[in-house]
Amino acid sequence: MSEEKDDCENSEEDRTPGIFSWRELMTQDVEGSTKFYTDLLGWSVNSMDMGGGMNYDMFMQGERPIAGMIKPPSAEVPNMWLNYITVEDLDATVEKAQSLGAQLHMPIMDVPGKGRFAGMADPQGAPIAFWQFA
């Protein structure tokens, strides 16, 4: 069900600012979630070793990566799908979002060779992440 792969080949990335560009399942039960989505939708999973005992699993539809899956670092993080919106300037977006009442939950982090992201909650408490391509 799982195959090791270092990167996502044949990825179709739409880099248009302002669109939902990625989705990620945060789950405490990676094995159970993998079984559910692969059985239900026929997806496959590529697992990437992130070091430090962490894996990042990529749901695949054929050869196309369509979503990520990760076990959150804390049991306090609820199981949920997190959506990412592409932005041109992550620093400016985070600053403006905070000025409009959003809360920063995951500070800006770099993903080497890919881009940067930050996790927030909008003023109503809904989780959202912002992504800036490298």
- Using only C-alpha atoms, the radius of gyration works out to 15 Å
User: pLDDT average, as an integer?
Assistant: 91
Strand order in the sheet with the most strands:
1-3-4-5-2-6-9-8-7
Please state the second-level CATH architecture of the largest domain.
Roll
What is the name of the CATH superfamily of the largest domain?
2,3-Dihydroxybiphenyl 1,2-Dioxygenase, domain 1
Q: Which characteristics define this entry?
A:
single chain, alpha/beta, 2,3-Dihydroxybiphenyl 1,2-Dioxygenase, domain 1, nine-stranded mixed beta sheet, 9 strands, disordered N terminus
Describe this structure in words.
The protein is α/β, with parallel strands linked by helices and 134 residues long. It has 2 domains: 17-80, 2,3-Dihydroxybiphenyl 1,2-Dioxygenase, domain 1, CATH 3.10.180.10; 87-134, 2,3-Dihydroxybiphenyl 1,2-Dioxygenase, domain 1, CATH 3.10.180.10. Helices cover 16% and strands 47% of the residues. It contains 2 helices and 9 strands, in the order ββαββββαβββ. It has helices at residues 30-41, 90-99, and strands at 2-4, 20-26, 44-51, 54-61, 64-70, 80-86, 103-111, 115-121, 127-133. Strands 1-3-4-5-2-6-9-8-7 form a 9-stranded mixed sheet. A hairpin with a 5-residue loop joins β8 and β9 (127-133). The radius of gyration is 15 Å and the shape is globular. It starts with a strand and ends with a strand. Residues 1-10 have low confidence and may be disordered.
